[in-house]
Amino acid sequence: MAAKICTIDFCYENSMVKIVANRNCPEIKLAGLTVGPFDEGNEYEIYFWAAKELAQAGLVHFREEDMMDSTRIKKVNFKEGVQIPGQISDLEGDFYPKLRRYLQDLKAQATQSQQSEKFQEFDRAKQLARDIVNSRLKKIVALAAAPSQGEQVLKKLTIEEKIVYDQLVKIISEWKAKILENGADKQ
């Protein structure tokens, strides 16, 4: 399962994202890839890994609406909490990769600044992330144990959640089959 999540992260790193140029910049040639030229204030679409490097260099920034932040995590947590039992809310397909990177960034900022406020912000975000994961995981377990789910429900699961769901369905089905054999296959 860890390998599958690494693969999902690799795909996210190589996905296209929208960025905004902070200033004019000439064309930049990388190993087999050319980005730019950039005109200040204009929006462009480039690979996430390249955008991250350009953002660290101060040449571009990610669009606010594409970034993970504490407000967004709180909204997801609230939305998940108000769902009726057995219902699971929609999540963006890249929610977990964005969440992981946001938590990593917060932790790095807290460690670098050594400010108690940053550590508190990181702790709050991590707790909200845990709450979201735990809430969704409970619902995924319930869905996996129930009779076959329709596509409508499964569409609401992220790739990571679908992996867990599929494994749980297999485990639960095998367990139920073994339990309900009525001792026919004693060992």
Characterization of the model:
- The strands form two sheets. Strands 4-1-5 form a three-stranded antiparallel beta sheet, covered by helices on one side. The protein has a two-stranded antiparallel ribbon with strand order 2-3.
- A hairpin with a 2-residue loop joins strand 2 and strand 3 (33-35).
- With 187 residues, it is mainly alpha-helical.
- The protein has helices at 2-13, 48-56, 70-81, 95-113, 116-145, 151-154, 159-179, and strands spanning 16-21, 28-30, 33-35, 43-47, 60-62.
- The two termini are 31 Å apart.
- Helix 4 (95-113) runs antiparallel to helix 5 (116-145).
- Helices cover 57% and strands 11% of the residues.
- The model has no long low-confidence stretch (mean pLDDT 90).
- The protein folds into two domains: 2-65, 3-Layer(aba) Sandwich (Ribosomal Protein L9, domain 1), CATH 3.40.5; 70-179, Up-down Bundle (Methane Monooxygenase Hydroxylase, Chain G, domain 1).
Task: Characterize this entry briefly.
With 187 residues, the protein is mainly alpha-helical. Helix content is 57%, strand content 11%.
